[in-house]
Design a protein that fits this description.
The complex is a heterotrimer of chains A (about 400), B (about 300) and C (about 270). By secondary structure, chain A is mainly alpha-helical. Chain A contains 17 helices and three strands. Chain A folds into two domains: about 75-170, no CATH class; about 185-405, MetI-like (MetI-like fold, Orthogonal Bundle). In chain C, the strands form two sheets. Chain C has a six-stranded mixed beta sheet, with helices on both faces. In chain C, strands 2-1-4-5 form a four-stranded antiparallel beta sheet, covered by helices on one side. In chain C, strand 9 and strand 10 form a beta hairpin. Chains in contact: A-B, A-C, B-C. At the A-B interface, helix 2, helix 9, helix 10, helix 11 and helix 12 of A face helix 1, helix 3, helix 4, helix 5 and helix 6 of B.
Amino acid sequence: MSSLMKKTNLNSKLNSSNKKTEVENPFYDPSLQKRHAHARRFKYFTMGSIIFAISFLVFFLGDMIVKGMPAFQQSYMLIDVTYNEKTIDSTRKAIDKKYRRIVSRAWLRDIPAMVEQDPSLMNTTQTSWVLVNHQVDQYMKGHYYKIKDKYLQTIKEKQAAGELELHFNTIFFTQGDSKIPENSGIKSAIIGSILTLIVTMVVAFPLGVMTAVYLEEFAHDNYWTQFIEVNINNLAAIPSILFGLLGLAVFINLFGVPRSSPLVGGLTLALMTLPIVIVSARAALRSVPDSIRQAGYGLGLTKIQVVQDHVLPLAFPGIMTGSIIGLSQAMGETAPLIIIGMIAFIPDSPDSIFQAATVMPAQIFTWAGMPERAYVERTAAGIMVLLSILISLNALAIYLRKKFEVNW
Amino acid sequence: MKPFELKTRHSDLKEQFIRFLLFSAAAVSILTTFGVLFSILFEAIEFFQMRSFWYFITGTEWSPGVADSKFGALPIFSGTFIITFIALTVALPIGLGSAIFMSEYASFSLRDKLKPLLEILAGIPTVVYGFFAAITVAPAVVNFFQIFGIDASFNSALASGIVMGIMIIPVISSLSDDVIRAVPDSQRKASLALGMTKSETIKAIVLPSALPGIVSATLLGVSKALGETMIVVMAAGMRPNLSWNMLEDMTTVTVRIVDALVGDHEFNSPDTLSAFALGLVLFIVTLVLNIMSVALIRKFKEKYKVNTL
Amino acid sequence: MANTTKDKMTSQKEKSEENLKVKIRDLNLYYGDNHALHAINMDLYKNKITALIGPSGCGKSTFLRCLNRMNDLIRSVRVDGQVIIDEKNIYDKDVDEVAVRKRVGMVFQQPNPFPKSIYENVAYAPLKHGLIKKGHYCDDLVEKSLIQAGLWNEVKDKLKEPGTSLSGGQQQRLCIARTIAVQPDVILMDEPTSALDPISTEKIEALMLELKEKYTIIIVTHNMQQAGRVADYTAFFHLGDLIEYDETETIFINPTEKKTEDYITGRYG
């Protein structure tokens, strides 16, 4: 029988077998249906869990944006303002009586300062855009408000005349915290965060890199080294709030570092950031191939020269990436800073690391606890600013890693 | 004529000095761990000199700041336990499910996209979760139970527990994913070649092999939930409440630590020092959990000879 | 060339249609764009051992994995053509690959017992398939399978110990016991002894000769002496082509193809 014949023979057989019912399929197994259904359900469960996690992320970010966006706008009203001796003395007289419960107290308070800055205003009446209070602002944004009817009438007239409008909220970025919601901003918290993080990095970066260099390049595998490694591991697992207790008991009570200052905050965060820097720096050092070191020794360099001139520069991008990630974690940390008093009410930006300051997450925490509705949108807006900075930092870290990625 | 430069005293000293400097830096991490331990321990000892240790761990009334103040931490421990339990109920199935999807079902490119997305959840500051729990989840919980005519507190343990659970999803999913992927492929092939379906293979072969790692990840998650502060400070209650009802407000160890240390108390009063007693308990529990977690992972690594974890 | 081989084969009596177990028709396999198996046609006989030999990368292991659809697990693989077992093409749409693997067992190169007890290793699949229930039927099946795999005497006192505690050769026989516990028709073996010492290899070879009474065995091997010792038929693969397929004796003593001869005599490989 030729193979060709055999094939046709076979095909005909195959066709006939296809026509047969399923039961005659030798591979038919009724119990499999159930098992496959089970397998499908299991797969859908795993798929569902990751979809849940990711949709939570989307919902959460969306929720923050919806809640926070209104804070980037603020209502202003166009009215006549009179500047003279009398109004500087008693600022509420600078505007028409019917506007007195509409305009922001914070704006009126600033009238003497405005005149001082621009003396030509004296004894004139200007028509200008004036900040209104938070209840009117909430009305303008369509939120819940509490305004007496007689003022509401004025507000509606002004709105109809186009003399009450939402403008971009510069105050949010140029002012510190305030008990007057429409006058509060995130600037002092941003500056506090920057000062704190500078202290953190100045301490954690060199200490972390030096520890990593010691463990990777110099340490022998002995009891001490293992002990240090276990410690670093534990350090990373200690709840952050306990670092606050350390900061309070050691830095403030023992060493007398000023309470609430970026210095004590930075030191506390540095100890928390240390393990992250160490771990990433070690990984970076380990990824530098031994051939580089061998080459250095071959040229007659000492160990320290090899590490300093050849290994460290090659490991530097990796170390930077890890440090930025550590930095962004420190930036979002709140609990230990509450313990060491960095949630104080700080209207003015700190000038030095010894002054009382607040940081962004602490400012968010403070605002979240305020009863006025206007603070809710500010809290969410503060979160948006904080998250944008964190995302940028992480993007930078990823960019650095990709750019300097070397496959040895 | 000298064939080689002689080793100079100067360069030797310099090398010694740098070595010493590096070692000192490494020692800081030891100092920090012991710093945390002792700073808490000493203040806690001071507290227990003033108040009974036995009542602290078994007493049911916690009433600081009053003339006849009492420090029985049992309701605080129970609140912490219940909120952690809720968090784990959320995080374990979702975290493990996500890990299984990423390691067993998703293609490489999909996994590379999903994993960083999940890790964003880990990167969100806890104060942000706290705000979300207080402003969005807590009212939602109240409204949901209103439908059934059940009153829930706006500071319910449930709301903070759920949000805390979401926060620890990536803790569990990330490590579990690594561990599941480290289970040798030959195991999967052997099971599939015996005519097992994929889910049977995962459940009967892969997950049992990865179990030490999954338990380790869970312990890390528990440790993270126990020490989590901001979510509970913002969304859970202040009231020590010995109850099993998770719709009631409850308080946790971390909340009471914050409460004791914020405000103008005298430092050496039992009110303030109680924070350190609670901190000591938290420190010991999380340390034990971490050590167990590390030991389990080491066991897994030795069993499958992997170094990538 | 293939024609002449087949003509010769079919001329013999025992190679009648009824004794055919597996028929492979025009089997092509692609890894993405890489055409790895070229139109393979082959007949495999019942209760015989067929050895697949050839240099590394010739496609013999890939071919083996086609016979129980293990290649389906690799995303980029595409198969066309037919593998007909018991008059049914296993690549037909109405055939479940899980059911195929139940009837076509496989033993791998590296012994890969599950990290479970010896007993559980054997009982795992039959229990899941619902072939037996827990209890003494299960004990019987485990015992029977271990006896068939020639491992019973060595492990009967330590069934609760982990399978991984056994030696390499014992592990491999455990894997064979695990496979036959599912009662397959065909057993595929992918270089089953390449990771073992000579004594273990000998035991497994003896086992194969016993098992062929009940099963159809197809074995991939690097070791030509092994093919000579155990196989009734031998197929020589080269670069994704089936070069020659005949009785083992013919292949080794009087191959038709020059390439086969070169390989057998060790000119490459």
